[in-house]
Amino acid sequence: MNTRETAAAELTDGRRIAIVDYGLGNVANVRRALEFLGHRVELTKDPDVLRGADVLILPGVGHFADAMKRLEADGLIPLLTELKEEKPFIGICLGMQLLFEHSEEGDVDGLGFIPGAITRIETRLPVPHLGWNALASDRPELDGKDMYFIHTYKAAPGPHTVATADYGGETVTALVQSGQLIGIQFHPEKSGDAGLILLQQAVTGGFREKEEASE
Amino acid sequence: MIKKRIIPCLDVKDGRVVKGINFKGLRDVGDPVEMAARYNAAGADELVFLDVSATDEGHDLMLDVIKRTAEVLFIPLAIGGGIRTADDIGRLLKAGADKVSINSAALARPELIREAAERFGSQCVCLSVDAGWDEEAQDWFCFTHGGKKKTDIRVLDWVTEGEKLGAGEILLTSMEGDGTKDGFDLPLLKAVEKAVTIPVIASGGAGSADDFVELFRETDVSAGLAASIFHNEETTVGEVKSLLSDAGIPVRLTAGGVPNEA
């Protein structure tokens, strides 16, 4: 049986998902993947739509400082700070990095929802970290799964890290969760069936945190 | 550990897949979306559509192919061929491509690489280089227009400049190897891989699954690309990955592609 079709079929009620539109990066493929999984998706910066959504997605491909500037210019930071307490909030790729306190990329502060800083990947291998890499996690359903990564900066593993990946001796945070807040460094919408299944899990229920996982 | 990528390439002309031998003698082999889905199921890590259409109408059909593919496939999709401007790139990305590979247009106007990288990010910009060996000069030179025109630009100069301008990846095709099935052009690949720090995709010459093992044993390239051996079912993506895995080379193992998933 095709696993991604199973993932879509298991969902009886599609969620209303708002992708935060702050004019950065190509979000069409995140949208397509979520629609494929049975959800209703809107790309928006309208505060009412963001408030009304079941799940928020903070996407992003590009430069950290530029992204923070745009979020600020659109007046989205106070709203996101408020909404992160109320509903599942998923940052993907740069969107994950923005959840942290600070980044070396442009030397600016992030949203500060998750403790820790974003720093450049230091390895003898080519940078960006590009391609399929395996997750390492206490969670058996995540451990060993190959996901598609493209990034030059990384979050070092911290208390909220759920899964990591090893790139030339650098351990990068691949998946982070703090309550309803989830950060995904890789591109689940480009990681084949395994990525779609993980995205569905993130949208519909999230992951148990690391501490609970090590039974 | 990062995995070595196996990338089937589909030459698409006027919305249909065609196959090239030495860049000549095209013949129709199938529907691109159907073939892309088959390769996805077989464990392809990424797909490349090379648009070899000669007309604007042909290139427009490509946009439709990309849209239809992106609705059902969730692995990286790269598009090459027929790209002149940053606006062309914008259209392809909007249709659902994840990255583009640019060749002749970048050689004609290197600034295109910088413009594209600044506008869409380096991760979207793959510099495609067709390399041919010049016996007299004892060096590799860039070719354009599907391998028909030789330039006086040296491959090693061009790839380092391309990286400086913002290319995120190099797709390197050996003109000697392309379509011959004699194996990848290892000396060329080694030289280019050492000259740049960005990932290199090897193309041209794959004739058997063993050629991929040799490629990843002998060079540090990130990925291997092939067209005809997959289309003609001389080998499968799954078989290539199985062989690589047995040889201790890290590959992404998928249930569909490799039966002996570890």
TrEMBL record, chain A:
Pathway: Amino-acid biosynthesis; L-histidine biosynthesis; L-histidine from 5-phospho-alpha-D-ribose 1-diphosphate: step 5/9. The keyword Thylakoid does not apply. It is found in: Cytoplasm. Its main location: cytoplasm. GO terms for biological process: L-histidine biosynthetic process. Its EC number is 4.3.2.10, 3.5.1.2. Residues 19-192 form the Glutamine amidotransferase domain. Keywords: Amino-acid biosynthesis, Cytoplasm, Glutamine amidotransferase, Histidine biosynthesis, Hydrolase, Lyase, Transferase. One of its GO terms (cellular component) is cytoplasm. It catalyses: L-glutamine + H2O = L-glutamate + NH4(+); 5-[(5-phospho-1-deoxy-D-ribulos-1-ylimino)methylamino]-1-(5-phospho-beta-D-ribosyl)imidazole-4-carboxamide + L-glutamine = D-erythro-1-(imidazol-4-yl)glycerol 3-phosphate + 5-amino-1-(5-phospho-beta-D-ribosyl)imidazole-4-carboxamide + L-glutamate + H(+). PROSITE patterns: GATASE_COBBQ, GATASE_TYPE_1. The keyword Lyase applies. InterPro entries: Class_I_gatase-like, GATASE, Imidazole-glycPsynth_HisH. SUPFAM superfamilies: Class I glutamine amidotransferase-like (SSF52317). One of its GO terms (molecular function) is imidazoleglycerol-phosphate synthase activity. The active site is at C93, H187, E189. Heterodimer of HisH and HisF. HAMAP family: HisH. IGPS catalyzes the conversion of PRFAR and glutamine to IGP, AICAR and glutamate. The HisH subunit catalyzes the hydrolysis of glutamine to glutamate and ammonia as part of the synthesis of IGP and AICAR. The resulting ammonia molecule is channeled to the active site of HisF. This is Imidazole glycerol phosphate synthase subunit HisH. It comes from Bhargavaea ginsengi. The lineage of its organism: Bacteria, Bacillati, Bacillota, Bacilli, Bacillales.
Automatic annotation (TrEMBL), chain B:
InterPro entries: Aldolase_TIM, His_biosynth, HisF, IGPS_HisA/HisF, RibuloseP-bd_barrel. It is found in: Cytoplasm. The lineage of its organism: Bacteria, Bacillati, Bacillota, Bacilli, Bacillales. Belongs to the HisA/HisF family. It catalyses: 5-[(5-phospho-1-deoxy-D-ribulos-1-ylimino)methylamino]-1-(5-phospho-beta-D-ribosyl)imidazole-4-carboxamide + L-glutamine = D-erythro-1-(imidazol-4-yl)glycerol 3-phosphate + 5-amino-1-(5-phospho-beta-D-ribosyl)imidazole-4-carboxamide + L-glutamate + H(+). Its EC number is 4.3.2.10. Keywords: Amino-acid biosynthesis, Cytoplasm, Histidine biosynthesis, Lyase. The active site is at D11, D130. This is Imidazole glycerol phosphate synthase subunit HisF. The keyword RNA-binding does not apply. GO terms for cellular component: cytoplasm. It comes from the Bacteria. Heterodimer of HisH and HisF. Pathway: Amino-acid biosynthesis; L-histidine biosynthesis; L-histidine from 5-phospho-alpha-D-ribose 1-diphosphate: step 5/9. IGPS catalyzes the conversion of PRFAR and glutamine to IGP, AICAR and glutamate. The HisF subunit catalyzes the cyclization activity that produces IGP and AICAR from PRFAR using the ammonia provided by the HisH subunit.
